[in-house]
Amino acid sequence: MEQTIRLDKYLADMGKGSRAQIKEAVRKGRIMVNGMTAKDPGMRVTASADHVKMDGEDITYALTEYYMLNKPQGVVSATEDARYRTVVDLITGRKRKDLFPVGRLDLDTEGLLLITNDGGLAHRLLAPGKHVDKVYYAECQGRVPKAAVDDFARGIRLPDGLSCLPAKLEILSVTGTEAAAVSKVLLTLREGKFHQVKRMMEAAGCPVTYLKRITMGPLSLDESLLPGQYRPLTEEETEQLKQL
Ligand code: URA
């Protein structure tokens, strides 16, 4: 049988204010449960069966939420930050207030970021032994040497000593004259060490000037999402993640 939860927790979980604010809203008669004005913020409700309204708006309860964000540059992969907007701030339509990003992208990296409050799933996706593939698109200075493809496939050791797992490098294009050459590449990593793409490309002699993540495990960035835009995951996408 489904458990009941306190009305004030139900509303607080859905981001409708602090417990004190909800208590006040109940006192003012702003909350209805199954068509009746609620009198007690501590009354128990069943999320799937009871109808809760606040100021006339239906408040449905979501235990877990999953969003795909196209992270823009200049936004931090955190839940709070003193200086910058966070990726969670961008999810304006969220219900839950306990959302967090699954992993991190650098401040100047764009692309696919999963935002959820499903801690178990985040753990499964990020567990070091799990080796979930992530594909990055990078633009780099200079000509990426063809030998880097085989080197990366074998697994390189960075100058600072970090041994990288085998990675797939695909050189999409190399344009421009020698001094101002630009290489566009796809790099598939099975791990996520700090600044790993930037460090690997730097080691190949080509510093990254633009970086975007395009896949993470079974998830691919929805091309209709502009940087800063997000959408809930489809049921199919959530199911695929849960099978990991
Ligand atoms: N590798 C990087 O260097 N930066 C990122 O944001 C992600 C992977």
Structure description:
- Strand 13 (208-216) and strand 14 form a beta hairpin.
- Strands 7, 8, 9, 10, 11, 12, 13, 14 and 15 form a nine-stranded mixed beta sheet that branches. The chain has a four-stranded antiparallel beta sheet with strand order 3-2-5-6, with no helix packed on it. A two-stranded antiparallel sheet has the order 1-4.
- It has helices at 7-13, 19-27, 119-126, 147-154, 196-203, 235-242, and strands at residues 4-6, 31-33, 36-37, 44-46, 52-54, 57-58, 66-71, 100-101, 109-116, 134-141, 168-175, 182-189, 208-216, 219-220, 230-232.
- The chain has six helices and 15 strands.
- The protein is of the alpha+beta class.
- The protein is elongated, with a radius of gyration of 23 Å.
- It has three domains: 5-58, Structural Genomics Hypothetical 15.5 Kd Protein In mrcA-pckA Intergenic Region, Chain A (Roll); 66-128 and 218-242, Alpha-Beta Plaits (2-Layer Sandwich), CATH 3.30.70.580; 134-216, Alpha-L RNA-binding motif (Alpha-Beta Plaits, 2-Layer Sandwich), CATH 3.30.70.
- Uracil binds next to helix 5.
